[in-house]
Amino acid sequence: MLDTALDAGVSPETLRKIESGRVATPAFPTIAAIADVLGLSLDEVWAEINQPDGEVEPAGAGRTARERLAS
Predict the structure, then answer these.
(1) What is the number of other CB atoms lying within 10 angstroms of the CB of residue 12?
(2) Segments forming the whole domain that contains residue 35
């Protein structure tokens, strides 16, 4: 997580707050920078946050944004 935060130009604490939901509406440039570091398109991020809880991705769809962030 430290490398992701630093590569995106945000503090690790800010990234932790975003991940935990303590920052309800992170700035768009912050999300765009994090997505870029994780190799995600903004469309993928949008799909991830709009996916109903518990919905399973199709097999072979790859890691989710959450899984990429956790690594």
Answers:
(1) 13
(2) 2-70
